[in-house]
Design brief:
The protein is α+β, with helices and mostly antiparallel strands. It is about 15% helix and about 25% strand. The structure holds calcium ion.
Length: about 450
């Protein structure tokens, strides 16, 4: 088993940093997610880990020879991204986790707590700027929720919602890496050609009228593979550094017009937002669960995407929540309203299967690459991970599923009395994710935020 549950997950562990012991903190000592951060005084970002309401600067620790790492691979903690950490081997990363826990835990090694430089190494998260965590050279977005695929398929192809390949291969497309932005970056409403109102009609052009989000989780690739050398299922999880929240903003009217025959293009490439915290695979170990239990009539995955470990532990139980705050709500000081709550365990394909499938043809992954899971939706209306699905009245599980897109949508009512079928300018979308399990400390992924700003139309 690549990521065992061990003493670093002991729920009794507490930190001398009090805020980390708050049961509602996303970042207890059992978590220790990687971040990149800087502030007005630094000329470059640093690698850090979040603990309670603080961030610990790993570069300063390293300068103090804190890791005592004669036997380690050299990792550059003063960098512009986490790609160096990602490229290190999993043994080194496990040792970093263990060493950091040792100096952060209450009653543990006092070396950090008593150091005269402790204050400069430990900063308040509120006082620093969290940057893009990794330099993403390539971004692939999958479509791994069978419920999302069925919902969307039902709108576009009511008689044939799931295409015949769906249960055989994790469907994906090559996304745009240059427009991946960190949480908090404003998102400009895209402009483009839109599907005609009627079949055979002329397409529209202008600011997107059906702007949407997609609640996804993203896997950050650790060590890559050589071109021509596929990654086996046995090795697949070792090649993942950790997981973040991903908002795959989507322009539905642009998407509907362009997606055939080659898949999404400008409907997706205007922005994709990632959360700044990379929750490591080590931290996620207590929250693993079996892969999706396939219907007896469904095809088995081919051997290159199958393993006993994956069947028993390939899934991850992560609760995902999406919130919305309109400009009016923020002006009135109202709290964001929750739109959905789903769980990552509902995915039809696991991250390991995505890695194995992505590389089976010899395609090379590189440290820092981002694999989006696809929108996470479940069986209930509450668990639908996009507005496209949430405001849709059709029942994908009816036979045949009912309704076509754009008609008879039920708007979501906001506490101000405003209504939403899709996003308006000024709307802020806030995504949260966390793991909970009896007998373990809750850990969280922080937040992934973005506010929609008005379109800029070229003539
Ligand atoms: Ca997507």
């Amino acid at each position: 088993m690549p990521y065992p549950v061990d003493e670093t997950h002991d729920p009794k562990l507490e930190s001398w940093i009090e805020s980390a012991n708050d049961p509602n903190s996303d970042f207890p000592i059992q978590n220790l997610p990687f971040v990149m951060f800087d502030d007005d005084t630094s000329s470059h970002p640093y690698v850090g880990v979040a603990i309670g309401d603080k961030v610990l600067n790993l570069h300063i620790l390293d300068e103090q020879d804190f890791f005592g790492r004669e036997n380690w691979e050299k990792i550059d903690f003063i960098s512009s991204d986490l790609n160096g950490v990602a490229a290190s081997d999993s043994t080194t990363r496990r040792e970093i986790r263990s060493r950091l826990q040792g100096v952060l835990k209450a009653g543990g090694d006092d070396a950090l707590r008593s150091a005269r430089w402790a204050n400069s190494a430990l900063r308040n998260l509120a006082d620093v700027r969290l940057c893009d965590p990794v330099l993403v050279r390539d971004y692939t977005d999958f479509y791994a929720s069978i419920y999302h695929a069925t919902n969307v398929g039902s709108m576009f192809r009511p008689d044939n919602p799931l295409l015949p390949n769906y249960k055989h291969i994790p469907i994906g497309y090559h996304g745009r890496a240059s427009s991946i932005v960190p949480s908090g970056t404003p998102v400009r409403r895209p402009v483009g050609q839109q599907a005609p109102a009627e079949e055979g009609g002329t397409p529209g052009f202008g600011p997107c009228k059906m702007l949407d989000y997609e609640m996804e989780m993203g896997a950050i690739i650790a060590r890559g593979n050589e071109l021509g050398e596929p990654i086996s299922m046995a090795d697949a999880e070792d090649r993942i550094l950790g997981v973040c929240i991903l908002n795959d903003w989507s322009a539905r009217d642009i998407q509907k017009w362009e997606y055939q025959p080659l898949g999404p293009f400008l409907a997706k490439s205007f922005a994709s937002t990632v959360s700044p915290y990379i929750v490591t695979m080590e931290a996620l170990a207590p929250f693993r669960c079996p892969a999706f239990e396939r219907d007896a009539k469904d095809p088995r995955p081919l051997p290159y995407m199958d393993s006993e470990h994956n069947r028993a532990h390939g899934g991850i139980e992560i609760t995902l929540e999406v919130y919305l705050a309109s400009q009016q709500m923020r002006d009135k000081g109202m709290a964001p309203v929750r739109l959905s709550r789903g769980n990552f365990r509902d995915m039809y394909w696991t991250f390991a299967q995505m890695v194995a499938h992505h590389t089976v043809n010899g395609c090379n992954l590189q440290p820092g690459d981002l694999l989006g899971s696809g929108t996470v939706s479940g069986t209930t209306r509450e668990s639908r991970g996009s507005l496209l699905e949430l405001t849709w009245d059709g029942d994908p599980f009816a036979n045949p599923p009912v309704l076509v897109p754009g008609t008879q949508r039920t708007p979501i009512k906001l506490p101000t009395g405003e209504e939403r079928k899709f996003l308006q300018d000024g709307d802020e979308v806030i995504m949260k994710a966390y793991c909970e399990r009896e007998g373990f400390r809750r850990i969280g992924f922080g937040e992934c935020r973005g506010i929609i700003t008005p379109a800029r139309v070229v003539q």
